[in-house]
Design a protein that fits this description.
Layout: H1 7-32, H2 39-49, H3 55-75, H4 79-84
């Protein structure tokens, strides 16, 4: 008997949701300071201290890539692009 649903599908779903959720949460730390993050100002200052100038724009780009890529990955949309982000 074949089924449209098996354990591998469930495992892949859970892996995608977990990984995407963690990435999206990490991005919101950079963007908004949620979940104990430092927001754009703090992350931008840190990025400048390690040589990324301008720091605030670098923090914005990193935060948008992580938040957007993580959300797309969790939703299963555009997964190659989401993984690359």
């Amino acid at each position: 008997m074949t089924s449209c649903f098996d354990r591998r599908d469930l495992g892949l779903l859970l892996l995608r949701l977990g990984t995407g959720g963690v990435l999206a949460a990490h991005g919101t730390q950079k963007l908004f300071g949620w979940f104990g993050g430092h927001g754009l100002e703090g992350t931008g200052g840190w990025m400048e201290s390690i040589g990324y100038k301008p720091g605030k724009q670098s923090a914005l780009a990193a935060g948008l890539a992580e938040t957007g890529g993580g959300a797309l990955l969790a939703l299963g949309l555009a997964t190659p692009a989401a993984g690359a982000a």
